[in-house]
Write a structure and sequence with these properties.
Layout lengths: L4 H4 L3 H4 L6 H4 L10 H12 L6 H12 L5 H13 L4 E4 L6 H8 L3 E6 L2 H11 L1 H5 L2 H21 L13 E13 L8 E4 L4 E5 L2 E10 L2 E8 L14 E2 L2 E3 L6 E2 L1 H9 L4 E11 L6 E3 L3 H25 L14 H6 L16 H23 L4 H19 L7 E3 L4 E3 L12 E5 L9 H14 L5 E4 L12 E6 L9 H15 L28 H22 E11 L4 H13 L2 E9 L18 E8 L3 E5 H21 L4 H16 L2 E5 L8 H20 L10 H13 L4 E2 H11 L12 E4 L2 E4 L13 H16 L3 H11 L4 H13 L6 H11 L7
Parallel strand pairs: 1-2, 1-17, 2-16, 17-18, 21-22
Antiparallel strand pairs: 3-4, 3-11, 3-15, 5-6, 6-7, 8-9, 9-10, 11-12, 13-14, 18-20, 19-20, 23-25, 24-25
Helix pairs in contact: 4-5, 4-7, 10-14, 10-15, 10-16, 12-14, 14-15, 15-17, 18-19, 20-21, 20-22, 21-22, 22-24, 23-24, 25-26, 25-27, 25-28, 27-28
Length: 851
């Protein structure tokens, strides 16, 4: 088997870093795109032979850094030396297109498969049309987007233009709205404007707020700067918190359940509370309380809406306003589409009447644009491509232009509704003026077209199918690169319905196969949030489908083909599931590398432990050796695994990333064999293999930390403490992950938690450091522990001069520091242990040490 570069070495520390996806993300919203840097480096190093050549390492780093143009030609040439012709590569879960984008750039014959029709359209506009039509596409897109905007503005732009404004040269940029409910106090009944906070501007040198006043039993607002705020007024305190509302008139409180009930019963409303505008082309924002003219503009648009809908329905044969229902479900679906808890039933409900009018007019003009292109003699397929970009541009507008877009007082602008992967209610929201120049977004899409047209003259072959049933022949691909879904992390199909229902109305007739269904297809999506199933059943469904997709990948790979799969799971349980699925699908694991590739907010809550990196597992399609013996495997692990662990340390990989990557390399040794038997002829399970490798890595870590004989007999509790601090420092860890670490150290967490430094909180475990146990806070504890060991040993041997030198060289020039470390370690050691006697002896004699 020819060994590839990634199977022997990978420059982890040079490639890891912040993820840049702007080259492709500006085309359209998609969630959790893979990093372009890591994708290019992983693809390239998986397609070239293993080598000690320094230039190869430098080329991988340059590809990831994207800082030299000539490196691509060299990289393509190196790949062709391995394959003679461009290798066929596949991404079976292509999503936002990062992996196939980089594969095209490296000269591969690239295939992208995706189940979601919204993602398929994005991929066509990223990986097919720019390469097929070149820079001309960008120029024509801008021309036709400008035509569409002018036509829409001609009809409905007047509803955002205040021709009666008292201030010459002013331009409305946004309207600020608050949802309202009636006070439930029978003696009051006032309208409650629901606002989480009252800030309009919260910049360092510009603080402006809405200030409520009670006049004739109703709440009215004034706009004031910070030096005008009333005594004891705080703009940070609004009128609603976690759906619990407060009436400012009578002081009554409305419970969260009652608030939701009022929304569902149709007793909520919306109120315009402020208008943001600029003056004389300045970028500075000014604010005013809505005037009668502002309200009238909105009401006029509202009155026009129904007649416009009827007019467009007659033209295009479908209601231009999406009347499809928003799915309702349990678990993650309920969390991701929590607007349904407030009575939002259809996708059209997410927009106010003026927004609906503008959007259906866009739908009308985009349909007219296609007919106009054909009448002007443009090729039908080319026109189809152009209109696809017009439709994506409307998608970019929509997630900034909805009744759920939030007002950000720090930046003084409206932020999109997808601040996180969910569609949630906003109490106060911003309505942008869609006819401002910066709101057209066309230049963003134009940038994406230009960037994509430069990477290759070849197009990507794009297919729509579930990865559980790939539309390719057996043994077709040289390599497969994948970033599969992560259990219930992102409900792609449910979120993308937000775009799908509008795309059906703009380009549905041009892509009948993509937009055939009522909403995005969900039946064969590889997710862990299946409607109507329990969490356990939905997780099982996900695992079954993921394994089926791995079996399909095995089928379409050529013999000896390489499969590199990246994942970013919150727990090692997720990682083990992926590895187990790979092994049971017939693959041999050959390497494992961690890379920092994504924004951490995607997968980890603050102070919660998770792998800080994506772990890339490298696997091969190869016949396995039928049988070996456990004693032989253990010998191979003792010989080979320490070298790989040394590599990880050399790449500055620490903590849980080190542990998981090490497990991957260890399993690579096991996975070459179909069966492994012990001396009694019993077959060794995958779980037993994992346990042995965990214990081996545990011993390796401890030996690298503790460098003298006394600590060769550390108590299990001491082992656990040191391993935890090395792996997780002060973060919370799921009980399952903590228990696995505890088992490798020889303790049972069920017998230890809440008795000392091991604390269980809910389903999480945290090991408290010295500072949490009323001992002075200590940083760099592992380094200090190592110094302490040397000091204790030198003290025992009476080598005072050497002891003083060690302390001086360490930079720890205060007796108290080492005393604290010694005390902390001593707490974890049983009284009858020899190491405790050694440390306690040091503690009682520290006043004899000179510094």
């Amino acid at each position: 088997m020819d060994q590839r570069y990634i199977e022997n070495y990978f420059p982890v520390s040079d490639v890891s870093g912040t993820s840049r996806i702007r080259e492709i993300s500006s085309l359209h919203k998609w969630w959790a795109r893979s990093s372009l840097e890591s994708s290019s480096a992983v693809i390239y190093s998986s397609l070239i032979p293993s080598s000690d050549n320094r230039e190869i390492k430098e080329s991988i780093i340059k590809i990831a850094g994207r800082n030299e143009t000539d490196i691509i030609e060299t990289s393509r040439a190196n790949i062709l030396k391995t394959f003679e012709s461009p290798p066929k590569v596949l991404d079976p879960y292509a999503g936002g297109g990062s992996i196939p984008f980089e594969a095209l750039r490296l000269g591969c014959e690239t295939y992208a498969n995706e189940y979601n029709p919204v993602a398929v359209l994005i991929e066509k506009c990223l990986l097919e049309y720019p390469q097929k039509y070149g820079p001309k596409l960008c120029k024509d897109f801008l021309k036709w987007m400008n035509w569409v905007y002018l036509e829409v503005e001609k009809e409905v732009g007047k509803f955002y233009f205040d021709e009666d404004s008292d201030e010459e040269g002013s331009v409305i940029t946004s309207y600020l709205w608050a949802r309202t409910i009636p006070c439930q106090n029978p003696a009051c009944g006032a309208e409650i404007p629901l606002m989480r906070q009252l800030w309009l501007s919260r910049k360092k040198n510009k603080k402006i707020s809405l200030v409520p006043q009670i006049i004739n039993g109703q709440v009215v607002f004034e706009i004031k700067e910070e030096d005008e705020f009333p005594p004891n007024f705080s703009p940070t305190k609004g009128t609603v918190n976690r759906a619990v509302a407060e009436c400012l008139v009578c002081g009554s409180m409305i419970p969260a359940n009652e608030t939701r009930k009022l929304f569902k019963e149709g007793k909520s409303n919306s109120r315009m509370v402020a208008v943001s505008y600029t003056k004389n082309s300045s970028r500075s924002k000014y604010y005013k309380i809505p005037q009668e003219r502002d309200i009238n503009l909105f009401e006029e648009a509202k009155e026009l809406l129904n007649s416009k809908i009827n007019e467009i329905t007659a033209e295009i044969g479908i209601n231009p306003l999406p009347d499809e229902p928003i799915p309702q479900g349990m678990g993650v679906v309920s969390q991701a589409l929590s607007v349904t808890n407030y009575g939002f039933e259809t996708w059209a409900d997410l927009f106010n009447p003026r927004q609906k009018l503008v959007l259906v007019t866009f739908v009308e003009k985009i349909n007219l644009a296609f007919a106009k292109m054909l009448s002007e003699g443009l090729d039908k397929d080319y026109s189809k491509a152009l209109v696809s970009y017009l439709a994506l541009n409307l998608g970019r507008l929509k997630h900034m232009y909805s009744g759920l877009a939030r007002w950000n007082p720090v930046t003084e602008n409206v932020r999109d509704l997808f601040g996180r992967p969910a569609i949630s209610l906003r109490w106060e929201c911003g309505e942008i003026n869609p006819f401002q120049g910066e709101m057209k977004f066309s230049h963003k899409i134009a940038e994406s077209i230009v960037n994509a047209s430069r990477i290759s003259d070849d197009i990507c072959h794009i297919s729509q199918s579930s990865a559980t049933s790939l539309p390719f022949n057996d043994e077709f691909f040289d390599a497969v690169f994948a970033d599969p879904p992560y259990y219930d992390n992102i409900p792609y199909s449910y979120l993308s319905d937000f775009f799908y229902v509008w795309l059906k109305r703009t380009v549905g007739s041009l892509y009948p196969d993509l937009f055939l269904t009522h909403l995005t297809p969900k039946k064969d999506e590889i997710i862990a949030h299946v409607m109507g199933k329990t969490n356990e059943n939905s997780s099982k469904s996900f695992e079954t489908k993921l394994k089926k997709s791995f079996q399909e990948i095995y089928r379409v790979l050529k013999p000896n083909g390489i499969f590199t799969v990246g994942y970013t799971y919150k727990t090692t349980e997720g990682w083990e599931m992926v590895v187990k699925s790979l092994l049971e699908s017939g693959f041999i694991v050959t390497a494992s590398w961690p890379l920092v590739t994504i924004n951490k907010y995607r997968l980890r809550a603050q102070n919660a432990a998770a792998a800080s990196s994506s772990i890339y597992i490298v696997a091969r399609k190869k016949e396995k050796i039928d049988l070996t013996w456990l004693k032989d495997i253990k010998g191979e692990i003792r010989e080979k695994l320490p070298k790989k662990l040394d590599q990880l340390l050399d790449e500055d990989i620490r903590g849980s990333d080190f542990f998981i990557a090490g497990l991957g390399f260890g399993l690579g040794i096991y996975s070459k064999y179909q069966r492994i038997l012990d001396n009694q002829g019993n077959e060794i399970t995958i779980e037993k293999q994992w346990n042995y490798i965990r214990n081996f890595i545990t011993d390796y870590i401890l030996k690298s930390l503790l460098d003298f004989e006394t600590f060769n007999n550390l108590s299990p509790l001491s082992k656990f403490y040191l391993l935890w601090r090395w792996n997780y420092t002060e973060t919370y860890v799921s009980f399952d992950d903590a228990q696995k670490l505890a088992q490798s150290a020889g303790i049972n967490l069920n017998r230890e938690w809440n008795k000392g430094f091991i604390v269980k909180q809910g389903n999480n475990i945290i090991v408290q450091g010295p500072e949490k146990r009323d001992i002075k806070s200590l940083r760099g504890s592992i380094e200090l522990i190592d110094i302490l060991h040397n000091v204790c040993l030198l003290w025992k041997e009476g080598k005072t001069d050497d002891l003083n030198r060690v302390l001086k060289d360490s930079g720890y020039d205060k007796e108290e520091t080492l005393y604290i470390v010694a005390q902390a370690i001593s707490e974890t050691i049983p009284n009858n242990n020899s190491e405790k006697k050694l440390i306690q002896g040091f503690l009682t004699s520290t006043n004899h040490c000179t510094y």
